[in-house]
């Protein structure tokens, strides 16, 4: 029971940190501000997170948890049909729900810290690897893709996704955004189609 209460309190603090970072910028958020925002004494926050660096590490774990939710419809469909549908996969991976699940500004503010802090860098690397591994696990459960190199395919897909989202975050014009998004989605769809065809050709 104590452990559950502790985890819930930590989650509350991290969520408060995220909410303030989204509104004010992560660099402008202090433990005192989080305390005021949550109606919680700063000493209690420091009991769980003695410094802001540890709050950032907690925030990175929160990013991962939120981003994993993008896979839920794919997992549900896979469990039902035992097959990965490329069109569904591409649409989910390029869904604007990423932006709803976690704010881009907070994500990139945390990412900027990887250039100054080795621990934060390692945690960000873990985050990216986990997203790739989750995709690999999904591909491993598909009867066709499982016969190929799913780790390499997941890597290729995320190289496109990560580059695409970085670039798309700079585009404000809606028509240009949709046009570029369509190009990136098509690129990943072609990767999936090509891999599927190569596997089927090899097994004829």
UniProtKB/TrEMBL annotation:
DNA-binding region: 30-49
UniProt cross-references to PROSITE patterns, sorted A to Z: HTH_TETR_2
SUPFAM superfamilies: Homeodomain-like
Ranges of residues in domain HTH tetR-type: 7-67
InterPro entries for the chain: Homeodomain-like_sf, HTH_TetR, IcaR_C
Keywords: DNA-binding
Transport listed as a keyword: no
Domain of life: Bacteria
Quaternary structure, from the entry: Homodimer.
Described purpose of this protein according to its UniProt entry: Represses transcription of the icaADBC operon necessary for biofilm production.
Official protein name in the record: Biofilm operon icaADBC HTH-type negative transcriptional regulator IcaR
Organism: Cyclobacterium plantarum
Lineage, broadest ranks: Bacteria, Pseudomonadati, Bacteroidota, Cytophagia, Cytophagales
